[in-house]
Amino acid sequence: MPLERKPTLVSVSMQGGPPAPRARSRCGPRGARTAPDRLRTVVALLVLTLAVLGTAGLLAAQAQSSVRPPDGAAAPPPSAQDTITKPGTAQGPAQGSDLWRKIREGKSGYSATKGPQADTLITSGGVAWRDLHNATVLRYGGWLLLGVVAVVALYFLVRGRIRISGGRSGRFIPRFTLVQRVVHWFMAVLFVLLAVSGLILMFGKHVLLPVLGPYAFAVVASASMQGHNLFGPLFVASTLALLVTFVKGNGYRWVDVKWLFKGGGFFGGHASSHKYNFGEKTWFWWSVVLGLALCVSGFALLFPNMLPDRAAAQLANLVHAGAAILFIAFAIGHIYLGTIGMEGALEGMTNGTVDENWARDHHDLWWQEHKGQATTDRRRAEVLAAERGDAVAGRAGS
Q1: How far is it, in rounded angstroms, from Cα 232 to Cα 298?
Q2: CB 296 within 8 A of CB 320
Q3: Cα distance between residue 102 and residue 92, in whole Å
């Protein structure tokens, strides 16, 4: 039996042509997006992010404004933005000026950091200290030192070296013990080291910096500071040793007033004195008083945290600088007379003995008491001086 063929359904267009193709979607393949769709998505995400960040900022500001200071804490001064509401009005600028005036006067507020003057925004005392230190202490102190050097140089040019009248006798009198000489030179060496390093720290940037340049001067200044801090504490021991060793015989007497009125014989004539004259006694007490002032103020500067406030440190700095300048000024005259200014003066602190004619010229009352101890045996006189100084009893020899 022959098979029957089933008819096939074919869609025909109204015009009778071939079948029309299926219309394609504007989105292209399934799941694909066009460029405008992606741009709209990015803009939406940005808007959402900004909204979240703005909300978080408002919440944080509200939480910060709700924090209360500790009980009993002083309220901080109002800010300029809080007080100055309308520029040009009477209320705004007046309150702003009052605010800064109080700050410049050192009025304190509240600070979370605890410590001396931690609640003070501006300490105007530092400006006053700097002006006093630079414009007064250093300026006039520098002129004082230069003036002393000029006077000493002029005196040496006019007067020359003070010679022993009649020349040296060749007879020696014991004067200073070995202990006294060691104490003297111990303090003298420390004084020179501290004086030189201190002068570099005070005047170096005005005198040495233009000559050496910044790098070399930095090395010199740093070494001076380290040496000053190192040798400073030793100066305390030397000052106390000087006081204990030389206090005997350095009390003032009526003969010292006469010595002063006669100018010590430096301008002619003769001025009598005992073992120490008025100038030597004044130098001794000057060294002790200023030495102690330097020691106390120096320790205060080495350990500033032990001071109550900055004002105490500023005062210590002024005392230290002023005492040092006065000390150095007097020392210039002492060093001059002990070296090139007076013949025979240095031997008392090197050998412990002095020539008999020198003693008669400058310490005649002391010479009257000890002329029986004069000897031509210099070695023996030095041994006796090292042991007991001028306290040797009896006649040393002829």
Answers
A1: 7
A2: no
A3: 16
What is the rounded CA–CA span in Å between residue 120 and residue 107? 6
pLDDT in tens, 377-396: 999 999 999 999 888 554 44
Q: Give residue-wise pLDDT tens across range 217-252.
A: 999 999 999 999 999 999 999 999 999 999 999 999
From the CB of residue 289, how many other CB atoms can be counted at a distance below 10 Å? 15
Assess whether pLDDT exceeds 80 at residue 51: no
pLDDT in tens, 148-170: 999 999 999 999 999 999 899 99
Q: How far apart are CA 369 and CA 380, in angstroms?
A: 19
Who's near 194: CB < 8 A, 6+ residues apart? Answer: 228, 231, 232, 235
pTM of the entire predicted model:
0.71
